[in-house]
Amino acid sequence: MRRVAVVVLEGAKPLDVGIPAQVFTTRASMPYSVDVCGVRPGAIAGGDGLSYHVEHGLEALEAADLVFVPGYRHPDREPPPAALADALRAAHARGARLAAISTGAFALAETGLLDGLRATTHWHYSRILAERYPRIRVDERVLFVDEGSVLTSAGAASGIDLCLHILRKESGMAVANHAARRLVAAPYRSGGQAQFVPQSVPETHGERFAQTREWALRHLGDPIGIARLAEHARVSPRTFSRRFLDETGYTPMQWVMRARVDRAREILEETDLGVDEIAATVGLGTATNLRRHFRAVLGTTPTEYRRAFSEGS
Length: 313
Prior knowledge:
Elements: E1 2-7, H1 14-23, E2 32-37, E3 42-45, E4 51-54, E5 66-69, H2 82-94, E6 97-101, H3 104-109, E7 118-119, H4 126-132, E8 137-138, E9 144-146, E10 150-153, H5 156-171, H6 173-183, H7 203-218, H8 226-233, H9 237-248, H10 252-270, H11 275-282, H12 287-298, H13 302-309
Parallel strand pairs: 1-2, 1-5, 5-6, 6-10, 7-8
Antiparallel strand pairs: 3-4, 9-10
Helix pairs in contact: 1-5, 5-6, 7-8, 8-9, 10-11, 10-12, 10-13, 11-12
Protein name: Helix-turn-helix domain-containing protein
Keywords: DNA-binding, Transcription, Transcription regulation
Organism: Leucobacter allii
């Protein structure tokens, strides 16, 4: 059982607080327990007309394996409490993973732990974050950034993507997909997928390509090329390739390959099928191909992955 702490700050955004608390909720199907805390116990004035009453202060971080800092109102007006920065640095030094949702990135930035690394936040605040913390490489276009022990995400909805990403890494595809079904959320959106900002791909194309991605996920075992994807999206292959990259952060075939690897991960966790059969099922052809792509994406082999994440382990 891994322990999760969710730190509620003054002006905390309700969705940002609720997402990690609900995704990692303490229940039989989840190998986590959750503590919601503040800088100190007691009442906390939140955003959007809501307030919170928490039983724990920052001592909750002392035993946490994973710490979330949800977004809060007006991060540009004053820095977060110094006590929080100290507690986050101490948790990180002890080996905890730190994750910020939306403007929670400002609190994480105050620790110095993001210096020299990539990070993101809500697009409305990305320029302010970059100006205030110039040593951070702020990327306003992505949904989330995973730098290993420190992670950041954009707006509230991308907090779900970040949480599911962490679940996939720590507990495997089956647990992450179970949580996604419980939340009625998309089981996989790449961290490289673009935030919805005014300069992004027009919404009609985004919707059309989302449908094409859903179609591709249902046909991973079939031959899928750019021409077929573009035909489904009803645009030219050249237009499809360019706009798909803008929308997802991947070329079409990179995205398909990763989707096939993820489907292979799920089959490895839930069945005893051999690697050759899995490779054919997900459209990677041969066991050699599957092993090569598995190593490239995950840094491990299918056998090692099954040993770590199979239901019987």
